[in-house]
Amino acid sequence: MAGPNHYRGIKELYPVQYARVLYFPNEDSNDSAIRNKFIGQFYPYFIQKDLYGYTIIPENIHNIEDAPNEGYRTLLPADTIRFAKKLKVVRDGIASFFYHPYLGSGYLQQIVEGLESEGYTFVSASSLVE
Known about the structure:
alpha+beta, two-stranded parallel sheet, two-stranded antiparallel sheet
C-alpha cells in the first residue's frame, strides 16, 4: 500500500491510475495514531484530476474474492454484476473491475455475460484517457 508521499512522487512517472484510490485525510497531524489512517474512494466515473493530481480510471465494482482473507467477504460474479447494476443510476458512469488471471476463465465469462446482459459494453481503459 502506498502512502500520500508515494502517490505524489510516482505521479510524475504514472499520471493515470486504474484503481480504487486511497486518501490520507490526517497526513499533517502530529498524532501518529491517526496520521496513517486512510480512506478508500470508489469513483463512479472518470476523474480528470484528483487530490494528488492523478487522472483516475475507476475500479469500482470490485474483484472476485472466492477465498477471502480473514475479515473480508466473499465476492463472486453475481456481486460484481449487482454492483454494476447500482452504477447504472449515475450519468456517464463507468463500471470497471480487476480480474485476477489465476482464477481461470469461468468467473470471468459469468461477469462478461452478466454485464453485457445489463447493457454494458467493454472498452479498453486506454480509450478513456485518449
